[in-house]
Design brief:
The strands form 4 sheets. An 8-stranded mixed sheet has the order 6-9-12-15-18-21-23-24, covered by helices on one side. With 226 residues, it is α/β, with parallel strands linked by helices. It is globular. 43% of the residues are buried. It folds into 2 domains: 87 residues, Rossmann fold; 110 residues, Hexapeptide repeat proteins (UDP N-Acetylglucosamine Acyltransferase, domain 1, 3 Solenoid). GO terms for molecular function: transferase activity. Keywords: Repeat, Transferase. This is Serine acetyltransferase. Pfam families: Hexapep (PF00132), PglD_N (PF17836).
Length: 226
């Protein structure tokens, strides 16, 4: 099996590790997480240190890395990890849980996580670095931009357009032909019947734009030491 390192050892990381194991394609050699002590065990996998170890691991022949940090409305940590991995030269595979159902013509970039019970319909196009969380349904012809998170139990009906860096809260429904533009956040349990503009916070049933949503671009993670 291909050797792989996981970046992120929190709750989302545990979900990603479980899905990696279900696919039986990769051998996880360790976790990088600067927020945890070296030697901590997460889902049976040892924390090796922070992501300062990436260049050395690459030299050792570990060429696959997975982004396993979650996205609670701010994708910047995931984007920074992606850029770090690419800068070193890592391949960032899509992690698709064995229980997910994908149409034969789904297209996607790299570094996506598709969780348990997710359904992707015909003609769906997915960008890079997205999270499609447990039980989400993405129907035919829907297009989702880079580093967008569709939270558990959400449904995107046919021909929905979702921009980059969007967070769609758990249990939300977006009806057919609606567009949600980039950098917006849809609150949990929302029913989206109309287009949502860029950089907006929207929620409710029906969902309404209630304010400006600004994502932090100054995120900095402490770098663990070996």
């Amino acid at each position: 099996m291909k050797k792989l390192v996981v970046i992120g050892g929190g709750g989302h990381g545990e979900s990603v590790i479980d899905s990696i194991r279900s696919a039986k394609e990769f051998d996880i050699i360790g976790i990088l997480d600067a927020g945890k002590s070296v030697g901590t065990i997460v889902s049976g996998i040892r924390v090796l240190g922070g992501d300062v170890l990436l260049p050395e691991l690459f030299k050792q022949g570990i060429h696959y890395g997975v982004i396993a940090v979650g996205s609670m409305g701010n994708p910047q940590p995931r984007i920074q990890i992606y850029e770090t991995l690419k800068g070193v030269g890592f391949v960032i595979p899509n992690i698709i849980d064995k229980s997910a159902v994908l149409s034969h013509d789904v297209q996607m970039g790299e570094g996506n996580f598709i969780g348990k019970g997710v359904i992707l319909g015909a003609g769906v196009i997915l960008g890079t670095g997205c999270i499609l969380n447990t039980g989400s349904i993405i129907e035919h012809g829907t297009i989702i931009g880079d580093f967008t998170h569709v939270a558990p139990g959400s449904v995107l009906c046919g021909n929905v357009r979702v921009g980059e860096h969007v967070h769609i809260g758990p249990g939300s429904t977006v009806i057919q032909n609606v567009t949600i533009k980039s950098n917006s956040l849809i609150g949990a349990g929302s029913l989206v019947l109309r287009d949502i503009s860029s950089n907006k916070l929207a929620y409710g049933s029906p969902a309404r734009e209630v304010g400006i949503y600004e994502q932090s671009h100054d995120y900095s993670r402490s770098r663990g030491k070996s």
